[in-house]
Amino acid sequence: MQTERMQRSGWKRLGVIAAVLAAGGYALAQGGAAQKAQAAPEKQFLQPAGMHRPTAYTHVVTSRGGKLVFIAGQVAFNEKGEIVGKGDLRAQATQVFENLKTALAAAGGTWNDVVKINWYIAGYNAEMLPMLREVRGKYTSAANPPASTLVGVAALANPDILLEVEAIAVVR
Q1: Where are the domains positioned within the chain?
Q2: Label partner for 62 (CA 20 to 30 A): which of 11, 42, 94, 146?
Q3: Residues 106-142 pLDDT 10s
Q4: Could you tell me the pTM of the whole model?
Q5: CB–CB of 69/109 below 8 Å?
Q6: Burial 26-63 (b: 16+ CB within 10 A, else e)
Q7: CATH top-level class for 42-171?
Q8: How much is the mean pLDDT over the chain?
Q9: Whole-number Å distance between alpha carbons of 67 and 31
């Protein structure tokens, strides 16, 4: 009799534990669904007083919410690993921005989600800047351009690569 009562009591406890675990799993699932339904990340593009107002980038970008996406430096390789536009900075820049667009899409983002880009240009000189801005302008927001840094470098990993661009985005 005692053993039978203990077994019934044990089964009741297991039933309660199972119910609690199931409810917890349901709550976690609902929490995950609620997170997916959250509003878009909040981003602020700031041009602080006391600093010059740039025309093609933002000095400060803040974000809250969303998922941070870090994209490695992209170069002008096509999907076969061949260099596009050998010796042609404009063609390479266009391929780089297309590669970044593809990487952003893989992470669930678009160019509107980009908050920071870093450029590395082999043999950079100031005469290149208008063309680089033109290519970038076809992809980034004119109203809220990302924070941006451009660095002239002596060389990149391959002598035929003229530029490399990395990006940080905040996506839903």
Answers
A1: 1-37, 42-171
A2: 94
A3: 999 999 999 999 999 999 999 999 999 999 999 999 8
A4: 0.72
A5: yes
A6: eeeeeeeeeeeeeeebebebeeeeeeeeeebbbeebee
A7: alpha beta
A8: 84
A9: 16
